[in-house]
Each structure stands twice: as structure tokens, then as C-alpha cells.
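Run log, item B.
One chain of 245 residues. Sequence copied directly from the ordering sheet:
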Amino acid sequence: MPIWLVRYKTGFFKVFTIPPKAIIFPFIGLGSYSLLYAAAFKNSPVEEANLINYLWPLFIILFSGLLPNHQLKPFMLIGSIIAFSGVIFLKGGLHFDFSGFQFGHVMALIAALHWSVYSLIIKHQKLSSTGVPVSALYRAIAFFVLHILFGPEQSLENFALLNAAALGAIVGIGYYCWDIAMKHGDALSMSIFAYFTPLLSTILLVTFSYPIFTANLGIATILIILGTLIASKDKIERLIRRQKA
């Protein structure tokens, strides 16, 4: 809600003039994705669920060929596959054991498909981004009620509650920024550069928590950067031509 007020510099009661569709769509889309994501993490190993979920940039690249004014080129697909192989190394190399495929793995795959389709829908429909922060408030209330009704009984300290609130705010800002990026940017570029997300999060973890630079991290860094450069070949060539002009 504060994001909405700062971004659009309007009074609080202007919130109620936002078209209902602009609130309902992200409420359902982001809310259902959050439920799928949580179910995946709860019912399978976290690293494996996260790896499967990170198929969504590849799905967006594949599905974006169906959008107007978007053309999927072979080097984009090759680059995205190379970048995803970097995510595999980042999450533990080739040592994952998927022989015991679990319910959480299925939820992670559905979550990846869900997020890619949701992202392309917001790109195509051009709904106003003003409803995203407001829908976040409604989602927070809905999830709080669901937790009270069905969640485990546990007492949380004030510090834990503050951490949860801060994490929720960060995730909400991320959803809002992604909504704007998809509406006003190129879907293929957004998906390609999304592969830097797990890389940056791991680098931050190494920098501030566990200062251990592993071989997997080095290989992942090279593969993600190489894949991104290959997939962005058109834009790099355009930039070079512009600099020479």
C-alpha cells in the first residue's frame, strides 16, 4: 500500500477507484503461485524444488513465441538452456537424485508453468500495475486468516514477526517491479536476465554468510553469463552498431 501511495501520489481513498480486474487478477495469480511454491518446498527437498521451479524463464522464452511482435530465435533458446545449466551447477552440480519423484516436485513444475503463463498474460492484457500493491494487502489478510484456521499452532517472537513482515514487503516489491517490467519491457529479455537472480542470491550468501567460493559457483557464473550473452546476441549487436554510428 505505501508503494502505491508513493508511486501514484494520490490519496488513500483513491485506492477504491482501481478497476476490480486489476486487483483480482494479481490476487488470484500471485496468490495461487505462492501456494504452489510453498507446497513444493514443503513436500520435497528445497534445492530440488527450487531448481525445478527455475524452469520458468525457459518456459517464458518458449511460450513468448506465441505473443505478437515476439520471435523466438534459435540462439535465444540455446543461450537460455546454457544459462539454466548454470543454475543446475549453482544448486549442487550434477548430484541431484530425482529417482524418488515426490508430490513437491510436481508442485514445483506446476508453479514454474503457472508463473510463465501468468507473466505472459500480464504482458498481453496490459492491466494497470496499480492493483498489484493493493492485491498484496488482500493476499496478506487472506493468508493470515488461512494460517489461523489451518496452520500449526505456534508462538512467534516479535523479531520473527518483523522478519516475516520485511520478507513479505521485499517479495511484494519484487512482484510489483516484475509486473512493470513485463508490461513495459521485452518478455524475452526479462526471462533471459532472470537467470542472474539465483546467481546474485548465492553470491550475496557467500559474501555475507558463508564465505566459501566453490567450483560449482565458478562454473555456474561462467555458464549463466555466457548463456545470457548468447541469448542477448541481437541486443548486443544492436548496441555495438549504435556505438559505431
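Observations after the first pass:
- The chain has a mean pLDDT of 76.
- Residues 2-244 form one domain.
Flagged for discussion on Thursday.
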